Amino acid sequence: MNRALDVSLSLLASGARLGTGMSVGSIGARPERALELYEFEACPYCRKVREALSILDLDAVIYPCPKQGPRFREEVKRRGGKAQFPYLVDPNTGKEMYESDDIVEYLFESYGGGAAPLLLTAGPITLATAGLASALRPGFGSHYRPARAPERPLELYSFEASPFCRIVREQLSSLEIPYLLHNVAKGSPRRDAFVERSGKMMVPYLVDPNTGAALFESADIVDYLEDTYAL
Ligand SMILES: N[C@@H](CCC(=O)N[C@@H](CS)C(=O)NCC(=O)O)C(=O)O
After folding, report:
1. pTM score, two decimals?
2. CA–CA dist 64, 55 (Å, integer)
3. Which atom of ligand 1 is nearest to the CA of 98?
């Protein structure tokens, strides 16, 4: 797809959710170990959970579960009994759960400093706008494309409402590449540490511990993933 159109549609998708996941909200206790989320990028229910992670400034290991994906869908079926996404695993408490509303509530109760924002809890309005965001990115990141599995998960610095980060997450999702998602939305107390590591405040920023690559620029990251992992 033409790059300008791609970015414009991604921007509209963020607009459909009024920028939810752009800024950090009130945060509470911090988990010792990163949460684990089985999801896929185009799923509106998964979007709600990813937004909550950005607002709460939480890291998570993302296991992408695109349709026909051979690896992590099977893992969810094994753990929970059915292929339904999102599926959250919290290794700190042993909690494992389906249902986006339950997951959002759990995250705000466990790691938030207050109630979840209205844009995440408005029932049909939340779902309709999350669905509209998915409709603006039809099929992007929802279907598996054959890829080589990396030995170690990649790392992505990102936040949910960034149109450029979405483009990278879609590629990771289609290729079923697991990654440690570092959320650094506006107001994140971890931005300074990020700048120290990367040299500047810009996302997406991808680190691949398998090859030593570390790069900015969504278009370059998409090309890197294609060249390195797509079959
Ligand atoms: N009520 C559930 C609905 C979840 C749901 O329907 N997820 C869809 C993806 S958007 C799904 O798992 N579909 C099965 C599949 O993709 O194979 C929730 O809020 O989490």
Report:
1. 0.95
2. 21
3. 20
